[in-house]
Amino acid sequence: MPSLNYPEPIIELVAELKKLPGVGPRSAERIAVWMIQHRKSNSEELSQALDTSRAMIGLCKCCGFFSTNGECDLCNDHTRETEILCVVEQPTDVLPLERSGAFKGYYHCLGGKLSPLDNTTPEDLNISELLRRVSEDMEIILALSSDVEGEATANYLAEMLEKKNCKVTRIAQGLPAGGGLEHADELTLMRALQGRR
Ligand code: ZN
Q1: What is the Å distance from ligand 1's center to 176 Cα?
Q2: Residue 42: which region, alpha, beta or left (left: phi > 0; alpha: psi -120 to 50)?
Q3: Ligand 1 center–CA 77 separation, angstroms
Q4: From residue 161, how far is each of 44, 95, 130, 146 by CA, in Å?
Q5: 73-129 tens-digit pLDDT
Q6: What share of the chain is helix, strand, coil (3-state, %, to 5)?
Q7: How far apart are CA 134 and CA 124, in angstroms?
Q8: How far apart are the first and last CA of the chain?
Q9: Ligand 1: distance of its center to the CA of 74 in Å?
Q10: If pLDDT is split at 50, 70 and 90, which confidence band does 194 have?
Q11: Cα 110 to ligand 1 centre (Å)
Q12: What is the 144 CA–ligand 1 centroid distance (Å)?
């Protein structure tokens, strides 16, 4: 006799939820059952919030951070230091750096890193816009991950930026390997930024 399980639609919902980052099988099941049981109060709000943010959120045409109207709040903040630019891989890397309080300049999100395995070439990244933004005497901080692809990307960018006579620095090592900036705590990030070279 087959063991008792949830009806098929719930199993499918659980399977979809399990695809979300950080959601394991048990959490997926708990969320799915909760959504079904509280259907009036929130699943509609949830799907609406999802639709709305998908429709409204784009990437800033200047720096690649999240924005709702073409240009992001960071680029529109004219109190920031213009002579310093921090290059990160993903828009999600900006918030932990910002929360560390150690950086007051502008950001540039590449949208990934160079990776021969994934066929990611310089043309796939937001590099031409970066080169357009920089000027002589600017300091460009490369805050990329410490894995092989992050290193390769940093080396490539350093070469391109030095041709533009920029000062290129790298954040100090010590970020969690493979985890990227997203997983680094604020104190680690502050030290990594202060120890740049
Ligand atoms: Zn921006």
Answers
A1: 26
A2: alpha
A3: 9
A4: 48, 24, 9, 19
A5: 999 999 999 999 999 999 988 988 888 888 899 999 999 999 988 899 999 999 999
A6: 45, 10, 45
A7: 19
A8: 66
A9: 6
A10: confident
A11: 12
A12: 18
Residues around ligand 1, an ion, CB closer than 5 A: 60, 62-63, 65, 72, 75
CB 110 within 8 A of CB 153: yes
SS (H, E, C) 16-71: HHHCCCCCCHHHHHHHHHHHHHCHHHHHHHHHHHHHHHHHHCEECCCCCCEECCCC
What letter would DSSP give residue 147?
A: S
Side chain identity at residue 146, one-letter code: S
Length of the chain: 197
